[in-house]
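agent> Task received from the user: take the single chain below, predict its 3D structure, and emit structure tokens. No templates, no multimer pairing.
agent> Plan: (1) validate residues, (2) run structure prediction, (3) serialize to tokens, (4) report one or two observations.
agent> Step 1 OK, no nonstandard residues flagged.
tool_call: predict_structure(input=
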Amino acid sequence: MSVQAQKVDSGRRRFLVVATTVTGVVGAGFTAVPFLASLKPRARPLSAPVEQDVARIEPGAILKVNWRGQAVYIVRRTREMLTTLSDPKVIEQLRDPASEASEQPDYTKNETRSLKSRPEFLVLVGVCTHLECLPIERFAPKDPELGADWLGGFYCPCHGSRFDLAGRVFKNVPAPTNLRIPPYRFINDAVVQIGVDSL
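)
tool_result: status=success, residues=199
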């Protein structure tokens, strides 16, 4: 091999070594940045309270928020929806109408399962107490799928559990208890704070 060919070959090798090294360093950087970013403390711990403006929720509507990695449903119930909670036809179908076996704060142990000062707002964990599926809202009475005696509530599509408009479970369904109520409070007329008990 000539001296000229050896110089060209040596130059190519050097170029390939440098190019490979630079590519490896850049690739390692792209890999390291997301990894190192994941080690930073989160701006908000998973258990931190969540604040939500509820002033814009229309009566009869639902808003879903995330708290501690779980869906929380905030429902602004109408007067008609609240009336169904004391309907004897509904109460006789419920497994635990007084919420004695349910997980909820003491200040929500009432017929509406809400703060007495704000009964129109239902705040509950939107996770079925059977196998943790997400119940869906079925607020319309006489839903074709749920029957002519249905007055509105929540329906779990996974195994058919049914809950009324206060999250109370019906008899003869797989869910053993009412939907859970998280600790919450209103910090003003328009904002609910989930994760902090009401005084």
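agent> Step 4: summary for the user.
Strands lie at 50-53, 61-67, 70-76, 121-125, 136-138, 153-155, 162-163, 184-186, 191-194.
agent> Done.
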